[in-house]
Design brief:
With 99 residues, the protein is mostly beta strands. It has one helix at 94-97; strands at 6-7, 15-18, 27-32, 35-40, 50-52, 61-64, 67-72, 81-82, 87-88.
Length: 99
């Protein structure tokens, strides 16, 4: 049985976090709703970095923890590393979010 090598923190997420170094061509495996899902890494994913589990269009939202953590600055393909090189942070209105 395949073991997960990434963690999905919320079922709404479009990224997972690598718990080990994943090489290009290796399988990215994660649990969602108690099911093991897999995709292929299209580039190296260093440990603790994010990997896209779906394609994310340029200016599309990057979702982690079930929340928007940024926006893509280029098209990000499924299985790609997601980092400061291809996303930007978005300003948030924390005062109104806490109401």
């Amino acid at each position: 049985m395949m073991k997960a090598n990434t963690i999905m923190l919320n079922n709404k997420d479009n990224v997972v976090t690598a718990t080990c170094n994943i090489k290009k061509g290796e399988t990215i495996a994660y649990l969602k709703d108690d099911k093991m899902l897999t995709i292929m890494a299209v580039e190296d994913i260093p440990i603790w970095n994010k990997a896209a589990i779906t394609s994310i269009n340029n200016k599309g939202f990057v979702i982690k923890y079930g929340e928007t953590i940024g926006a893509a600055v280029e098209d990000i393909t499924e299985g790609s590393c997601v980092s400061h090189l291809n996303i930007v942070s978005l300003p948030r209105d924390y005062t109104n979010e806490m109401k």
